Amino acid sequence: MFICGLHRSGTSVLARNVTRFEDCTGFKNTGATEDEGQFLQDIYPVAASLGGPGRFGFDARAHRTEKSHLLTPENVRKLRESWHAHWAPEKQICVEKTPANILMTRFLQAAFPNSYFVIIRRHPVAVSIATQRFWRINLVPLHRLLDHWLHCHQLFDLDKLHLRHVYELTYESYVHNPARYHDEIAAFIGTRVPEGRVDGGYRYIAHAASQKASEVSEMALESLSGAHNEKYLNRWSKLLNRSVLKGYYRYIGRKYEERFNQYGYSLLEFLDNDGEGTQIADRILGPVYCLGVDGYTLSWRLAAQAKRQLALLRKAMFGRSIGMRSKHATGAGMV
């Protein structure tokens, strides 16, 4: 079973909860970020090498189907062995979660013919603002993050026509009624949600964005809250109505509104005043705003990456210096 959805869409908590269902097993204590399967194989490139969160989908290599040149018998064997080494052998339902799976469903179905796919979708504003917040070193303009959301979900809409087993839900509905969706997903994959399960210890999950780890229950289902979505949507409302760059945000809101309406989301419902004169001005200046934001985020990204490389270089040089002094001191003592 594969859990799919863009970064910050709720894939991690959903996957951990599903692995707690009866007869299910997932990756844990692997040392890999979020225990994602992409880091436990060497058949295909990870999302970070294709641009990272909010950008990977624009790289044609991220969209993999049953026609991929990587889908050789030898590669399929290696991929299965890599993942089965981390799944509990006594369990019948093996769960893997990687955000970029949303563009790999047909590839995965070809490699694992009895595959089941659960796709979780979240409000594009929440996904985009959260991505900017958590991956600032790879800062992407908001309009390009919205475009990336649409691009990936539109590709999946075409791919799902080729899938035999697929179940879709939204983050918003999952947060509102997790018990309902746990029951439906359990029935979809042929198992059930355990009752009265208590904590049986804890484990740690490594996070890429914060470079820290968090503690989660080993057995008890994790609770959910709509507070995170509300925070991001409130932030969007302030950007639309009170930001010094509100013209930019109104422009991209209008640009993408109809396309997101097709997925049940709205960008303009948070706009307080949308007069005709304002629309005309934003339409004229909108492309200029986008160019300016593109330039700003590019300079931010280059500066952040240069700062990171400098820090790594200093760390390497400092460590080498310590090692050399230690070596000389040891040698002097021996003499």
Can you describe this structure?
It is a single chain. β7 (202-206) and β8 (213-217) form a beta hairpin. The relative contact order is 0.13. The chain has helices at 11-19, 73-84, 105-111, 124-134, 142-159, 171-176, 178-189, 227-241, 246-261, 276-334, and strands spanning 2-4, 24-25, 93-94, 96-97, 117-121, 166-170, 202-206, 213-217. α4 crosses α5, α5 (142-159) packs parallel to α9 (246-261) and α9 (246-261) packs across α10. The protein folds into two domains: 2-224, 3-Layer(aba) Sandwich (Rossmann fold); 228-325, no CATH class. It contains ten helices and eight strands. With 335 residues, it is of the alpha/beta class. The strands form three sheets. The chain has a four-stranded parallel sheet.
